[in-house]
Each structure stands twice: as structure tokens, then as C-alpha cells.
Amino acid sequence: MLRLHPETLEDRARDLEALGLNGFDLMFVELVPAAAPVQAELTVEFQNAVSVSDIDDAVNLDGVSPEDIFAITGGTRIRGGTAPGELRITAVAAGADPDTLVLTTSTIGDYSTYRLHVAFDDAAGDTVIDPLFAAIPFKFRPGCFNLNCAPAFDKGTPKPAQPVIDYLARDFASIKHVLINAMRTRVPGWEPTSEADLDMVLLDLIAADTDELCDFQDRVMQEAYLGLARKRVSLARHARLMDYHIHQGNQATTWLTATVSANLTLPAGTGVWTGTDWDDSGAVIFLTEADQDCLVDLNRLDLYDWGGAAMSLDAGADTAELALPASLNPVLQGDAVILRDHFRRADIRYLVIEEALNPATGRVNGRDGSKRQLLRLLDGDDVAHTGFDPVAGQFFVRVRWRPADRLQRRYCFVTRCDGQPPIAGVSHFSGNLLRATQGRPHSLVARVPGSDLAPTDTKTFIRSDEVYWDVGPQGASIALPTSPLAYRDTAPGGEIAPVSSTVVTVSGIAGAWEERIDLIESEAGDLHYRVETDELGQSRIIFGNGVNGALLDNDATVRVTYQTGRGTAGNVGRDRITGFDAGLAPGLEALTNPFGVTDGRDPEPRDIIVRRVPEAYRSRQLRAITLADYVARAEELPGVAHAYARHAWTGSWRTVQVSIDPQGTTVLDDTLRQEIAGHLDAVRLIGEDLEVRPARFVALDIALALCVDATFWPEDLDMELQRAFSDGFTADGQPAFFNPDIWSFGETLHASQLIGRALKVPGVERVLKVALRRWNASTGPSTQVVEISPDDLPDATPDMIPVQPYEIIQVANDPNHLEHGRILFNLKGGRR
């Protein structure tokens, strides 16, 4: 529909009279007669009076038919036209004004819109009607409709047919098929021909690009959710949003014992390995963690035998008298002081005790290779003191280690075989200990893009590489050319962020940069970087962008040292790590790992990550709300065996009193107390005070009357019973009955427990009587006795010692400290 500018149209109508032209302006419709109309009178107003009277004369005087001048079109049920029965103009009459005519229709039209047309020429044959004003729309019943003069809106045209698009087409073949169908639809007559034609080549290129785009979109949607993500970097980022750090695996670590021919210092990074050469197939490489002095005096240390009287150290021992080694003179006190001062050094904090010979035969064959234990020496001057044997005239050194490291098994040092002289050296101590971590060393230099790079050297023990560092929107980054990157030993569970073995230095900046799990909290000048490792084991070092973390200079040279190796590959058996480069460590005679390596871990699998992240988010307690929360938090520390918490009113506020049962001892030292207080203070509620106190131990006085088998000597059986009911360990390394780590807060001692344990000792036929009481009768019930006759079962009423929830029973059975509890055995029968 043609739309006309209204102002321009008015100007044109105003100029018609001057041009001798005319046209319709308005129309009024009147139905006659009003009561029962059968016709309509159309009063038409023209733009001016030009030729209006001529039209009237032509119809009424000259006999021109009104249908020849005026025509009606349109209508739905009643059509306008000149055919019989159609709506038409039947009469024309002059109106009240010179520019008005009254037209009479043959009938009344329907409710649709009609158009009245006029066509008239003057005597010269020239038209006098302007084509723009030659027609006018009208309705026979205008009162039923909106008389808005604006034309009706354009209904438009139907939407052209669109080609069928398969939105499931996401790969090259299906996308190419869609493109071919689209070409057939839009280009009539087109058909696919040879693959070498230009149009087919273009379709192949478009399909290939679309395939890559669809793959990118699919990967983006896949990595957007924790449960669907497949890339390890995405999993790590999703997990960190829920305060969970995925475990990247960790390198295996172990202790090494060294034997040296001269005092020397082994530097950090000294390489050792399994097998003969480091580059052998299957060789596992380890590096020492720190500089360590190795002393000839500490190669091998034997127990001082007191003139052949000392035979062994029992389980539970935390002290040993050591003979001076062959490199020192035992009759000189100065040499004893030298050995004592060795143990007082800050860098010598551990000993290893091991069984070297079979105690039954005095030979290497048949020895128990697993009978070894790491001993952590005490701190300060209490660790070692010199002593003197006046009979032999020799000096020795008494060393002490932590109660938590008390011997778990009996160690024989001198054995006496049938008809042979005593054989010494069955067990011994070693003092040259080094900590080592698994992984081959690498040295990487990252230079500015475009610089000259040195070739890669893979033949040396320390592999050397040179690469370019990249610049991206997140900052500079370096892709490590070798994998897998070794990570430091971190506990699994998601609470501790993984730390890689990388050490990064940058030219022009003193000191090493610090690794962070992310750079969100890093300032613009902080020398921080982060490491990301993907599912293929490829790692990338990422630096800051100048806003979060320092930005690398344009000419910076980055040096990176790191280790590579899969964690579980480093889990090797004891005495497997024996290889080293003698040329790099002159004076080092032998080196081995006394214990099997077991702490190497592989990266946390994807399925485990997806399952553990939401579980850890729901279960991890970051605030101690209940007393059980305080207990669980305290027992997370490695030095705590058990804990108990209760509320106490201290006069002005409420205090949470946390009682601690230390691991392997009954003494809560200040170091562990402060560590526990700091660990609990991070989760305590506002308004609650915190007090960390030692556990309250309840000493018991116990007496057992036992019937001994006729084939056992009572004296020997008494020793076995003393060991079985001690607070240490039995001969086979199992915790004894009153070992403090077995008993916890509020655990009641029943007489049946004592009876059952006694009957497990070979040689005990039956228990005759059990007597139980607290050591201090004022703190609990008086003596409670269970008498067992040969025929009757014991009465179940008085056969227990109840304790409070904050108490732990204690029976040290130490004659020097009877207030720590005792147990007596009355043995009847046996061999006499």
C-alpha cells in the first residue's frame, strides 16, 4: 500500500484549482429512507469547484450515464460494479455547495470498505481529475467502525520458506550434508559433483571450520560443570570454588643411611637411585632434600655391653647406652664428649635401629629385614650425656629419644649360640640419616621469544632444556617440556593446597619466587606464580599480570629447577636405593634406604574428585559448634591420640576445656599444647574461651591370682605377664594391655578384660582371683574383688572400675612411680 506524506498531499490539493484540476476531498453517507433504507445518498465534496457543474450537466443534460463517470469497487457479499445486481451509481444531483455532488446508489452495500472512483474529461478531452484524488474509500455504515483517517496497516507478505536445518549436525559429515541440502534449496539446479570442484572444496572448508567450532562449544559446555568436566585444570578450578584442593599426587620420600670413610657434607640435590646406573631402564631416582653432614663416628653405633652383661633392649625402651665407635678411644673422656656433642647438634635429630644378624644363629641369613625403627632424638642437651664404666674403665654415651618413639619390638645386640662365644653386633644404630625425595632433576631456562636457544641435553643426570616463555591475557607462562611434574608430599583430603617441586628465579630479581595455588590475593608487586597440570601430566607455570602478581619484564630470563616422576613409581622396597655417583661424593662408601617407601601417590582420579568435592563441602566443619567438634578438631593433629571436651563456667564467661591424651605418652608438653591451642582457636566460637589441659589419669591398683601350668617356671611366666600388662609393647611389637594409646576417655576397665588377656599368655591355666581398686581410695570406690571358684562363674556386679568421661585409666607398673598404677601377680603352681 502506497503511503503519502500528509502535508505534501495538502499542498498538492491546494494547488489543483490553479491548474484546472480537481479531485475528491470528503464523502458523507446517508441511508434513505431512514426508517427502512433501501438506497444510499453519497454527498461528495471535491477539492474545488472546477468541472463539478460540468459533471452534473453531463449526466442530467447530456444523458451521460452516471456509471461512465462514477464507479464503485470493492465489497464482499455485495460487489461494486456495472454488472446486473452489482452496486453502482444510478443518479447524480447538484449539492448545496458549488463543489458538492449528491450521488444515489442502486442499493446498500455490506459492511466492507468500498472505493468510489471518478473519471471526467473536459470539452477539449483533457482530464480534469488528479489521479491522487480520483478515488475515495467509504463504508455504508460508518457508525459501526473507527473513522480514523489513517490508512489501514499493511498485512505484509508471508515469510519465505526457510531451508530445513538439522541442529543435531555437530560433526564434519553431518554438517557437510546440511550444506549440500541448503545449496540444493537455494541454488536451483545445483548438484554436488566432483570433490575437487571449487564449490565442493568451499563446502568442505566451511564444514571443517564448523566442526571445530561445534567441538569448542561442546567442550565449553562440558567444562562448565563439575560433574561433566573432563579436563583436570577445570576440575581443579571448580573444586577450589568449594574450598577443595584436588590432590596432584606426590613424590615418594624416604630416609637414607650413609656410610662414609671421612667426614663430609652431602649437598642438597645429591642424586641416588635404584640399580646400577641412573639411566638404566626402571631406575628410580631420588634427590637429597638438604645439606647434611655425615660423620665417620655415626656410621655404626653399638650398644654398650657392660662387659658382656647387656644383651638386648626391650620393647618400650626410650634410652640406650652407646659404645664409642672404633674411630674414637673409649678410655678418653674427650672422645666421649665428641660423640655426645654429635647428638646435641641441631642437624642430627634421628637414629635408626636395625637388626643386622639373626639372633638365633648370629648369621645374616634368616634375619628379620623389617625389624627396623626410626627414632626421633630429644631436643636440647637432654638428648645425650656421657657415662663411665668403672669396671671396664671405658666411657659411653647415653642417648634418649622421644617417648612416642619407644621401641616397638625387642632388639637383641649380643647372642649366645650353643657352644660358641658370644656374637655381638646382632643389632646396631645408624646416625648418618638423610631425607630424599623421588624424581629426576631438570633445569629449564625460559628466554624471551625470538632469542637463540641452546639444544636440549638429555644425556646428563640433570636434564637441561631451553624454551620460550609465552605471553597471554593472564600474564606470562612457561610450558614445562617434560612430564609428569613431581609434587611435594601433601596430605589428601582437599584441605591442603598442592605444592610442586619447582623453584623459579628470574634474572634481575634476587631470591626465588613463591608458588601459590592462585594469584587472587597477590598484589601487583608480589613475586608469585602458580602451576597448572592437565590430565595428560603437562604442566605450565603462570606468572602475574601486573595486577595480581608481578609482571615479568620484557627481557626477563626465567630459570626453573624441578623434578619429574610418577608418585607410585617411587614406592620401592627397603635396601633398594643403593646407587650414587662416587665421583661427586668422594668419601661416601655406601648408602641405602632402611625402610620401604610407601608414601608416593598418583594424582587423584577424576571420578574421585567429582564425588569428594561436594562431600567435603558438606562434611567439613569450619566452626566448632558442639563439644564433639572440638574433639574431632583436636584429634586431627598427629600428636594427639584422644581428646575430650566439656564446658566450664569460669566466673564471667564459658570456657571450653579440652583434655588431651598425647600419642605414645602421658605427658602433654608445651609444644604440643600450643599447637593444639592454635589449631582449635581458628574454629572456636566468639564468646567462648579455650583451655587445653592434660588428661586426668586414674591410677589403678590391680592384683591377679593365677594358676600356672605345671610345665612353666613361675619366674619366667611372671616376666611375660609383666610385659603383657605393661604400658609399652610386647616382644612381637604389639601394644601391651595398658599401652596409653589403647585406652581413651571414659573407658571402663572390666575384670573380664584382665582375665581374657591373662589367659592368652602361654602357661596360665586359669585365673583364681581379680582385685581392682583405684590407687587413691578417696577418689573412687574401695577395693573390689572377684573370686573365681573352680565351678562357679564370677559375679558380674563388682567386676569393673567406673571412670568419669574426662578420666583415663593408667597402670604404668613402674616401681619408681607407684602413683602411676601397678599390677601384682600371685602365681600358684607351676614347675618347682
Give the topology, please.
Layout: H1 6-14, E1 24-32, E2 39-46, H2 52-60, H3 66-69, E3 70-74, E4 89-94, E5 100-105, E6 114-118, E7 135-138, H4 172-186, H5 198-223, H6 232-241, E8 253-260, E9 264-266, E10 271-274, E11 285-288, E12 292-294, E13 312-313, E14 319-323, H7 333-344, E15 350-355, E16 372-376, E17 384-389, E18 394-400, E19 411-412, E20 414-415, E21 423-424, E22 427-430, E23 433-438, E24 440-447, E25 463-468, E26 470-472, E27 475-479, E28 503-506, E29 514-515, E30 528-533, E31 539-543, E32 558-564, E33 577-580, E34 588-592, H8 606-619, H9 627-634, E35 640-649, E36 654-662, H10 670-681, E37 688-694, E38 696-708, H11 714-724, E39 749-750, H12 751-759, E40 764-774, E41 784-787, E42 800-801, E43 807-810, E44 822-829
Parallel strand pairs: 24-25, 29-30, 36-37, 38-43, 38-44
Antiparallel strand pairs: 1-2, 2-5, 3-6, 4-5, 6-7, 8-23, 8-34, 9-12, 10-11, 10-33, 11-23, 13-19, 14-18, 15-16, 15-22, 17-18, 20-21, 24-32, 26-27, 27-31, 28-32, 30-31, 35-36, 38-40, 39-42, 40-41
Helix pairs in contact: 4-5
